[in-house]
Specification:
alpha/beta; UDP-N-acetylmuramoyl-L-alanine:D-glutamate ligase; 9-stranded mixed sheet; 11 helices; 11 strands; 51% helix; globular; binds adenosine-5'-diphosphate; binds 4-methyl-5-hydroxyethylthiazole phosphate; binds magnesium ion; kinase; magnesium ion binding; metal-binding; ATP-binding; EC 2.7.1.50
């Protein structure tokens, strides 16, 4: 299946993505999913997260503005998602910046089966044991051991790992792919990584068998779709402000053919 045809699946199926995300990006993540053609819902109450996760096509967890209530909500939702076969995508925002965030990410990873772990290269470096520095929620220096550590982590946890930045890396524990689309404006707005995680949730929500290889394909397609849309948006944006709006428009208008034409994906 071509990378672009994954977008057709998303638009045809309009998967419901249950997001437990942060206070900064809630609105933009929901609008990003709508522009793409997916269906967002944000739900946090302990009384309903298990029910919501069970009827969703995917569960996207984001540690951006973590607090103890959210930690419990994520635990309840993840348990229900695993029980009902709903794929989980985790964005460990700021893992490595404080022990609380790192511990929360590790508890989710150890206690549940993730479909995809997606963070910036520093967050992924911290969680996979490669090391790296995290400055608040932004990436610092990435580790030179990142690729090996990602592959070992993916194998051990039977999951797909995605590390983003100027170049993006994806592995299912066997193959490693390097993705080279995107635009520096993405690093000049808040929430690009968080929105991408929600988008990965939409793509993975179209996969109905628990298959790491298909999850990897979905992740590659999601990152490439998002980043090619960003390139198209940047072409007529005056700066980060208009870029943010233009990105929503580009996600709405982009075609599978445009994605396939611009995709820069290679196996390492
Ligand atoms: N310098 C860059 N050039 C091109 N694309 C980038 C650049 N920095 C980040 N991106 C893209 O921005 C998105 C968010 O990645 P990143 O900034 O690593 O995550 P986060 O916002 O979680 O720190 C990804 O799609 C990534 O490919
Ligand atoms: C600024 C900030 N602070 C807590 S969460 C958040 C948003 C982070 O978004 P992203 O990781 O996509 O840049
Ligand atoms: Mg992030």
């Amino acid at each position: 299946m071509s990378i672009g045809s994954w977008l057709t699946r998303v638009r045809d199926q309009r998967p419901l993505v249950h997001n437990i995300t942060n206070l900064v990006v809630t609105n933009v993540a929901a609008n990003t999913l709508l522009a793409l053609g997916a269906s967002p819902v944000m739900a946090y109450a302990h009384e309903e997260v298990a029910d919501m996760a069970s009827i969703a096509k995917s569960l996207a967890l984001n540690l951006g503005t973590l607090d103890p209530e959210i930690v419990v909500a994520m635990r309840l939702a993840s348990t229900a998602a695993n029980r009902t076969g709903v794929p989980i995508v985790l964005d460990p925002v700021g893992a490595g910046a404080t022990p609380y965030r790192t511990r929360a990410a590790q508890e989710i990873i150890d206690g549940h089966q993730l479909a995809i772990l997606r963070g910036n290269a520093s967050e992924i470096g911290i969680l996979t044991g490669a090391g790296g520095s995290v400055v608040g929620v932004d990436a610092g220096q990435a580790s030179e051991h990142l690729i090996d550590a990602m592959r070992a982590f993916a194998t051990e946890h039977r999951t797909v790992v995605v590390a983003t930045g100027p170049r993006d890396l994806v592995t299912d524990g066997q193959a490693v792919w390097e993705l080279a689309n995107g635009h520096p404006h993405l690093a000049a707005i808040t929430g690009s990584g968080c929105s991408l995680t929600a988008v990965i949730g939409a793509f993975v929500g179209t996969v109905d068998t628990c298959d790491p290889h298909l999850y990897a394909e979905a992740a590659i397609a999601a990152v490439t779709c998002f980043n090619v849309a960003a390139e198209r948006a940047a072409a007529h944006a005056a700066g980060p402000g208009s870029f943010q709006v233009a990105l929503l428009d580009a996600l709405y208008h982009i075609t599978p053919e445009q994605i396939d034409e611009a995709a820069r994906v290679r196996t390492l």
